[in-house]
Amino acid sequence: MSSVIDLLKSHRSIRKFSDQAIAPELFDDLIKAGQSAATSSFLQGATIVRVVDKRKRSQIAELAGGQRYVESAAEFMVFCADLKRAGNYCDEQGKAFEGDFTEHFIIATVDVALMAQSLVTAAESVGLGICYIGGIRNNPALVTELLELPRGVYPVFGLCLGYPDQDPETKPRLPISVILKQEVYNEIGDRDAIAEYDEQIREYYKTRTGGGHGISWTEQVADLLSQKSRPHMKGFLAAQGFKFR
Ligand SMILES: Cc1cc2nc3c(=O)[nH]c(=O)nc-3n(C[C@H](O)[C@H](O)[C@H](O)COP(=O)(O)O)c2cc1C
Questions:
Q1: Spatial distance between the Cα atoms of 33 and 209, rounded to a whole number of angstroms
Q2: What pLDDT score does 76 carry?
Q3: Nearest Cα residue to atom 6 of ligand 1
Q4: 117, 34, 39: which is closest to 82 by C-alpha?
Q5: 3-169+228-239 adopts what CATH topology?
Q6: What is the residue with the minimal CA distance to atom 19 of ligand 1?
Q7: How far apart are CA 60 and CA 76, in angstroms?
Q8: Residue 48: how many CB atoms within 10 A of its CB?
Q9: Which ligand 1 atom lies nearest to the CA of residue 156?
Q10: Residue whose CA lies nearest to ligand 1 atom number 1
Q11: 10 within 8 A of 164, measured Cβ to Cβ
Q12: Per-residue confidence (pLDDT) for residue 1, from 0 to 100
């Protein structure tokens, strides 16, 4: 078995970090590893804002719903989808800017995710732990203001990075039969497989919370999809110049 495959399968989010700093050379190397990810149309539509300032970190931790590890992680970065950098050259080359199509939004957002996940894999390979912070989208306008993001740039998620001070279990994923289909999409056998998986997830949460009531996966995701989810995002993105034409 490849050690990379083992590494990927051992991923778990870390939410408690030690005080140990990340050596600057290692940090640079992790950024380069992230930057080496594939990038759609060679757009390179991702920009990372590294947040060092303690006050700014606590403000973001608060905005993200009181997630204290945003402050305690050795590093915290905000990954942004960036259509501005490339868009600047439309003007310069006398071309009308048309970079506000839904497709452009997808390209840049996917670029961000790929860059982040490559950086994450590199980080985990040297014993670092990570936690993505989608919570920054609770208040994307204030995060945008704090980081001085211009139009054409939006914060997709944050990332905490540091040496782990905890050793949580890996979180079981859905059975392969549910997420991998042959030739065509179908839901054959999914309900039974997911019912079994629900029990596994209940146990996982019970163990993690020391015997508390474990919530199942289907309860969790049905909750998620039966509630409005950050309804401000549409207006926020429009204000940032993402028009979804
Ligand atoms: C884009 C993204 C945003 C996330 N946002 C948060 C967050 O704000 N806070 C948090 O504690 N975990 C966050 N997570 C972590 C997920 O909860 C976690 O990956 C998931 O529960 C699976 O657990 P695992 O990473 O330990 O395998 C996020 C993950 C992703 C991919």
A1: 35
A2: 98
A3: 133
A4: 39
A5: NADH Oxidase (3.40.109)
A6: 13
A7: 10
A8: 18
A9: 1
A10: 134
A11: no
A12: 58
Task: Tell the residue nearest (CA) to atom 18 of ligand 1.
Answer: 13
Q: Are 162 and 77 in contact (CB under 8 A)?
A: no
> 209-218 — which CB contacts under 8 Å span 24+ positions?
217/174, 218/194
Which residue of 7, 8, 12, 13 sits with most ligand 1 atoms within 8 Å of its CB, as the best mutation to test the pocket?
Answer: 13
The answer to whether the pTM exceeds 0.90 is yes
Helical residues (DSSP H) of the chain, grouped into ranges: 3-9, 24-35, 54-63, 69-72, 84-92, 102-125, 140-146, 176-179, 190-208, 217-225, 232-239
Q: 64 CA distance to ligand 1 centroid (A)? A: 13
Q: Which of 47, 80, 60 is nearest to 242 (CA)?
A: 80
* Per-residue confidence in pLDDT tens, the chain, 245 aa: 579 999 999 999 999 999 999 999 999 999 999 999 999 999 999 999 999 999 999 999 999 999 999 999 999 999 999 999 999 999 899 999 999 999 999 999 999 999 999 999 999 999 999 999 999 999 999 999 999 999 999 999 999 999 999 999 999 999 999 999 999 999 999 999 999 999 999 999 998 877 677 899 999 999 999 999 999 999 999 999 999 99
Hey, what are 197's tokens?
């998986």
Report the separation in Å between the CA atom of 15 and the middle of ligand 1, taken as the mean of its atom positions: 10
* Ligand 1 center to 195 CA (angstroms): 23
Residue 222 CB burial class (10 angstroms; 0-12, 13-18, ≥19): exposed
